[in-house]
Amino acid sequence: MDKHAFNRGLLKFLQQSPTPFHAVQTMTASLEEAGFELLDESASWQLKSGRSYVVQRNGSSIIAFRLGQGDPALSGFSMTGAHTDSPCLKLKPNAVMQSAFAVQFAVEIYGGALLAPWFDRDLSLAGRVEYQLEDGSMQSALLNWQKPIATVPSLAIHLDREANQNRSINAQKDMPPLLAMPMLDAGRFEFDQFIAQALQQQHGISQMHKVLGHELYFYDTQPPAMVGLNEDFIASARLDNLLSCYISLEAMLSAHEARADQFSLLVCNDHEEVGSSSACGAQGPFLRSVLSRISAQLSAGEPAESMERLIRRSLFLSIDNAHGLHPNFPEKHDANHGPLLNRGPVIKVNANQRYATNSRTMALFQALCDNSGVPCQSFVVRSDMGCGSTIGPITASGLGVETIDIGVPTFGMHSIRELAGSDDGWYLARVLRLFFSSGA
Question: May I ask the CATH class of domain 3-86+237-438?
Answer without folding.
Answer: alpha beta
